[in-house]
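Below sits the subject:

***
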Amino acid sequence: MILNDLALDTRACMGMVEPYNPAHLSGCSLDLTLSDHILIESLDQNHNGWIECDITHGYTMAPKQFVLASTAETVTIPHDCCGQVILRSSAARAGLNHALAGFLDAGFSGTITLELTNQLQLSTFDLFKGQRLLQLVIHQLNSTPSNTYDRTGNYHGQSRTTPSNLNFAALQHNG
């Protein structure tokens, strides 16, 4: 079951989303905004292949460019729910894409790292702090899972844009 605006408002007021802006609430989703920084790819391995860029005054993504960003909001998924972060249709129609890594397990808490690509071939796409690009959808589970993300997850508690776990490739090969 997907939570409606009344249930989302109740849970957000109880701390599920901080800071919470009731003006960002829709019928069955809550808009989330960009934080003040992104990570852009770099050949400089001293920074693990990423360099932080402040977007307080904006950042222009080149055509086909990929960046990592994060939400300004900290989201705490209750143990009896899971969540999805979905790109707003207006942003998609303007040429932005959010990779399909937007699932939030029960018990996750932190800012949400976003994998964004400018799909346009000829035009740029502007990102800026506070931009409403995403919708948070919360699903009620039929029961509380035995393994929640706060006990098993790699990115629980993240507070900034977080690149992939450096062990990701090794974990895929070893099991």
Notes: The chain has one domain: 5-143. The longest helix spans residues 5-16.
